[in-house]
Write a structure and sequence with these properties.
With 317 residues, the protein is of the alpha/beta class. The chain folds into two domains: 175 residues, 3-Layer(aba) Sandwich (Rossmann fold); 118 residues, N-(1-d-carboxylethyl)-l-norvaline Dehydrogenase, domain 2 (Orthogonal Bundle), CATH 1.10.1040.10. Helices cover 49% and strands 12% of the residues. It has an eight-stranded mixed sheet, sandwiched between helices. Helix 1 crosses helix 2. The chain is globular, with a radius of gyration of 21 Å. The two termini are 33 Å apart.
Length: 317
């Protein structure tokens, strides 16, 4: 069922922001990449992206070659042509179930049942993705985080028909790329990391909507209060250490009071026009007139600095 333990050529279906990030990672790690994308300028755009990000990949230790290996990147006409030439296929189509299933049908028509397909979906359950496949055991979700060429985390989620060996292989394979794969054991809406992210985002939106603090104060509370700790440890470790030498048992001695804090969190509605109006104004406030390309460049530069400082994060946390 499995591809070779260390595939040589990676197929990419879709080269938008996520697909481009994957291409950069795979090329940095020495793989051959064959891609397809229906956009007329897809190849030009992808090659430019990889060239622009190569220095960052070198600085965080993912790229060891001085220059982009241009000859290792090729384009094909469609998903079937990609599948025929690949040892592993990464699907990065838009978040549309029918479109993704169409991609899988094209792959299955062209490639043997041993070819594993990894989906970059951010929220469609793998069981739904594999529902119409002839060989659903080959499908697995490998969900990266923006910007995917820099952020180490990859969520690995199998569907009800995914072969357990495929999940195990994916964990080994993405570890070998220098990424940080985690296994999500149950299929739930938004998987794991986005659930954690949106719990915090929900409260940030609530604080904006209720005027609890200025948008910049909310940003600063997260960047300078929570962010430094979360760069080196997760929420559960942070919670444990709050109890000092007594650890979690000591923290839970005041569980009734802490429960009040949890119960006080808001439940804003993103569909509320008034909430949307306040969020748009907040975004304008905190971006300070900087363009999105400027902000993306700033974000990426800071992420590189952070990743170089905190290291690969292989310790148990």
């Amino acid at each position: 069922m499995l591809p070779q333990e260390q595939p040589k050529r990676i197929g990419l279906v879709g080269t938008g922001s996520v697909g481009s990030g994957w291409a950069a990672i795979y090329l940095a790690r020495g793989f051959e990449v064959i891609a397809c994308d229906p956009a007329p300028d897809a190849e030009i755009r992808l090659r430019a992206f990889v060239a622009d990000t190569w220095d960052a990949l070198q600085r965080i230790g993912l790229a060891t070659a001085d220059r982009v290996p241009e000859r290792k990147l090729a384009f094909a006409a469609n998903a079937g042509a990609v599948a025929v030439a690949s040892d592993f296929v990464q699907e990065n189509a838009p978040e549309n179930l029918a479109l993704k299933q169409q991609v899988y049908a094209e792959v299955e028509d062209a490639a043997p049942p041993t070819l594993v397909i990894g989906s970059s979906t951010g929220g469609i359950p793998p069981t739904e993705l594999q529902a119409k496949m002839r060989h659903p055991e080959r499908l697995i979700v490998c969900h990266p985080f923006n910007p995917p060429h820099l952020v180490p985390l990859i969520e690995i989620i199998g569907g009800v028909k995914t072969a357990p060996d495929v999940v195990d292989w994916a964990l080994r394979f993405f570890s070998s790329l220098g990424k940080k794969p985690i296994r999500v054991d149950r299929e739930v809406t938004a998987f794991l990391t986005n659930r954690l992210q949106f719990a915090l985002l929900r409260e940030a939106v609530h604080c904006v909507a209720e005027g609890i603090a200025s948008p910049q104060a909310i940003e600063d509370a997260m960047r300078y209060g929570l962010g430094p700790r979360w760069a080196v440890m997760g929420a559960l470790t942070t919670f444990t250490l709050a109890g000092g030498e007594g650890g979690m048992p000591h923290v839970l001695k005041i569980a009734p009071e802490l429960q009040k804090w949890m119960d006080a969190c808001g439940t804003p509605q993103l569909t509320d026009p008034e909430v949307q109006k306040k969020l748009i104004a907040a975004a304008e406030d905190i971006t300070g007139g900087r363009s999105l390309p400027e902000l993306i460049a700033w974000r990426n530069e800071r992420l590189v600095d952070l990743l170089r400082a905190v290291g690969p994060g292989t310790e148990k946390t």
